[in-house]
Each structure stands twice: as structure tokens, then as C-alpha cells.
Amino acid sequence: MERTCDCCPNPAVVHEIVVRDGVKAEVHLCAEHAQERGFLMPTSHGPALIVGKLLEQAKAAAPRAPKACASCGTTMQQVRETGLVGCPLCYRSFEQELSPIIERAQAGACAHLGRHPAQAAELVDRAALRNRLARELREAVAQEQYERAARLRDRLGELGAPTALAPNGAEVAPDPMGDEERGGAPS
Amino acid sequence: MSNPDDSARGASPWQRGGADDPRAHDDSCRDCVLSSRVRLARNLVGFNFVNRSTPEQLSEVVHRVQAARLGGPFEGGVRWVNVQATAALDRLMLFERNLISRPFVEAQHPRCVAISTDESTSVMVNEEDHLRLQMLAPGLQLRPLAARMLELDRTLERSLEYAFHPRFGYLTACPTNVGTGIRVSAMMHLPALRLLEELDKVQRAAKDMHLAVRGFHGEGTDALGDFFQISNQTTLGRTEEDLVEEFAETIVPRFVEYERAARRALLERDRLAVDDRAHRSLGLLRSARLLSLDECIKHLSRVRLGVALGRIEHVELAHVDRLLLEAQPAHLAHATGLSLGIAGLGSAGADDRAARATAIRGAWR
Ligand SMILES: [Zn+2]
Ligand SMILES: [Zn+2]
């Protein structure tokens, strides 16, 4: 017998089986509800094609994930078994795998909002100050307040080399360690 | 390193908190909240996490932390306990006093704990994370506690470099603790909700609010009678202040309100029955010759409810809370010189019922 959608009596075209922590969860959705839930697919394609596509995507994604953390040697398999990662760099080695796990445990949150180590905080503060000064400088120039503009330019100069420009036009602080995270094994 | 043996019997100094103690300023929720706790997880840069470290590396972590300036609550003095080299009974004492965690009692690897003179603050080195900082206070005092904790963290950070990731925040051995790494919890006394069989509702509400509900001694322990520890599970995506404020100003007060409403309902339904229950328990604790831990906790809970509702006079909540601690196996063994089975975390150890009955009987004058 054909499966029906979890949300309505229509036949299901998307079947997802996820095993998490040893618990199997199944999702069956009709084309309409699948689209509503964000399973992007053309309505004319049947389930087989969708599964094929998912497999293709999974294959494409797989080689990028390293087998073991380069720093501590922990594998994702071990992380799953123990619930623990081995070192700070594991968070880079397994970022792809860990992100959904973290999101799920954190009620959907995926980015840190709280305090930073003082050194990083200082850089973030400096970037914010730089942004403000740059905005004021643009305003000053637009309003032909050249003396004020000169002072602002000097102040910006004191803050050191300009930081990278983010895509949205806002300046961002360079990474404090010149790398994605601080950590790793003793050298 | 000193031995925890000189640990004072009875309540920790922070629990006694006299009127002159600034920490005793807010007792408004003491009827339902025994104590507040704030924990912070931190790891050092340049080391594998504890689960992936050699004993030599773990000893090095201990040295690094011992060389750091602790400041804050440790200004008045610090006691470093080499837990690896400490006898089982003393480790259990530290556990019952909420200074170390259950896994820390039983681990085998190099580890130690720094304890402030007033026992309000402890730093476990090489628990699941390199550093587990913890602060305790009586009643509901999460905001001042968190503020002091974050100050201590800043002080430590001047001598230690923490593992940090711009997106995941402070990195922890367990991926679900990342972000702020902060856990706030309240030890709650919810006897009326239990009597009215409303606890399921409480558990469901807690789940909806992404809270963890645990037993008397936190993680991995069962709820003991009417006592529950409620703590936040979300550590990522919100600031420390935001998390603490919501927990202290909204979540805990909501549970307090549930419990108080249940207490009012109990009184309305049958005031005499409530009285009778509390006084029977007090009578039992004053007369029993054999008292198991479970039984003792059960009756102390009923007495506590009677005191909170003004049905029992001349007994203070703080006194009942102290007895809740003194009735624990290691405290009892320490006070009476009784030996305690290594497996004696619960009541499975030596038969200490007579000793407990004697200790509790004498506690009411
Ligand atoms: Zn449907
Ligand atoms: Zn690693």
C-alpha cells in the first residue's frame, strides 16, 4: 500500500528516514507539504529521483569531511559513541557534522552571542568603533564638514590597518588569531 | 594541597549566611528555592580535551591552573584539594557539599579542585572540561551569583588562554555545551505540586522551556523526594545576561508560583491535614531510633513545608536545609566515625540508620 502524507491524505512523495541517537524517525510528505517544509523539488519528479538526488548530494558532501581530526585523531564515529569531541580543533574538523547536532541541542541556535575572550572582545569593540567612525566620516563629507572629517580620518588612522569589508558593506574584525579558532594540540 | 578533612561539619559557611552577609539579602523565594548555582565550562588552548589527554597532559593542566591568579571569591583564601590522592570518604564529603560532581568523585585521572574559604566557589580542574567553575548561594540569587562568576572568569582569563570559536563560542568537550558555557540552576522544593500530582505538568513545562530537571545532586542523580534541580539547557545563541535574566526573573518565579498556588490549594482543601502531616513528621524525626536516608529526606521535606507555611513555629528553613545536608551518608560517616562502603553513595553502604536517627533526633533541642 502506498504511503500517505503525514499532514494530509495525499500520497507521499518525500520519504525521509533519520536515525538519531539510535531512534528512527520517519517523515512522509506529499509534494505540496514537502515544498511547504522546505524540501525543494519539482512536483513532476517521483520519490526515486528525490532519493537519488539526496544520495548524490550526500556523496558530494562526504569526501570533504575528514576521517579524523588532524590535531587529536578523534573520528566522528568516536564523537557519536562518546558524545565528546577530542580537542578544540575538532570543531573545525567536524564543523559540518557538529553544526546540526549543536543546533538541535540548542533549540535551533547556531551562533554564539555572549562574551568573548578579552582579546577577541577588544577587536570586536575596535571594529564597532571603526564602523561608527567611518559612518560619521561619510556623513561629515556629505555635509561638507571638512574639519570634522579630517579629525575622524585621523582617528580612523590611529585605529590601525583597515579591516576586511564584509559582503553587506559592514566592516568586520579580522580573526584574532588569524585563524578560525584558537586551540589545537601543544606544539 | 591540603586535605579536605578539616572541612567543617554541618552547613557550608555560605549556607549559614547571617544577616550581615550581603549574600543573604534576598530570601523572598526561600520557601521554594533552597539554593542557586551557576556553573561555567572552560577549556585551555593548546591541550586536548580531558577525554583525549594523557595523565601527563592533565597534570600539566593542573599546574597551569594552580599557577593562575584566581582572585574574587578566592581572595580570602583558597583550598586546593588533590582529588586523585584523596580518600573516598573525603571525596564523597566534597560531593555531598556540592563542591565537586559525581563523575569527579569516581574518576581516576589527575584532577583537583580549588575551594574558596566560604565554600561558595569551587573550580574543578579536569572534570569533563579543563575548568568547571561553580558558585553556590542560598535561596534565589542567580543574578548576583552570575555577575560574580563572570568577574571570576575575567580574572582567570588574564592568566589562562581559553579555547574559543567565533561561531560556537567557548568550546567544550561535549558539543552541546558550547556557546556561553554557562549553566544556571535552582534547587527547588516542590512538595505541594507532588502531593497534588501536578509534577508531570511541571516536567512538561520544563521541557517546553528547554530546561533540565534533575535530582538532589544534579546530573545523573534521581530526584530525591520533593527536591528538584532545574537548569537551563540552552547555552548558545543568547548572551549570558539574557540567559540568566530569563531564568532568574521568569522561569524560576513561574515554578515558585505553581508551587505556591498548590500550597494554597492544599491549605484550602484541608488545613488540619497539612498541619497533621508536618507535625507527625517532626514528631517522627524527634523520636525515631532508625532512620534511612530516603525516610529522613521525606520527613524533612514535610517539616520544611510546614515551616514554610507557618504551620510549624520555632524552626527555621535554614535549619531544615542544614539537616538535609547532615543526613547525607558521607557527612554522617564523618560526624560519627562510621565507616562507609565505597559503593555507599546511596543507602547501599554501611547501615547508618541508627547514627542518622541519633543525629537528627538531637537537632531539635
Ligand atoms: Zn500533504
Ligand atoms: Zn580534535
Q: Can you describe this structure?
A:
The complex is a heterodimer of chains A (187) and B (365). Helix content of chain A is 43%, strand content 7%. Chain A is mainly alpha-helical and 187 residues long. Chain A is flat. Chain A has three domains: 1-44, Wheat Germ Agglutinin (Isolectin 2), domain 1 (2-Layer Sandwich); 67-112, no CATH class; 118-176. Chain A has helices at residues 31-36, 47-61, 76-82, 90-93, 95-105, 118-142, 146-158, and strands at 14-20, 23-29. In chain A, β1 and β2 form a beta hairpin. Residues 40-55 and 162-187 of chain A have low confidence and may be disordered. Chain B is built from twelve helices and ten strands. In chain B, the strands form two sheets. Chain B has an eight-stranded antiparallel β-sheet with strand order 2-3-4-5-1-8-10-9. Residues 1-9, 17-25 and 341-349 of chain B have low confidence and may be disordered. The chains are: A mainly alpha (187), B alpha+beta (365). The structure holds zinc ion (2 copies). One zinc ion (ZN) binds next to α4 of chain A.
What are the defining features of this structure?
heterodimer; A: mainly alpha; Wheat Germ Agglutinin (Isolectin 2), domain 1; 3 domains; 7% strand; B: alpha+beta; eight-stranded antiparallel β-sheet; 12 helices; 42% helix; binds zinc ion
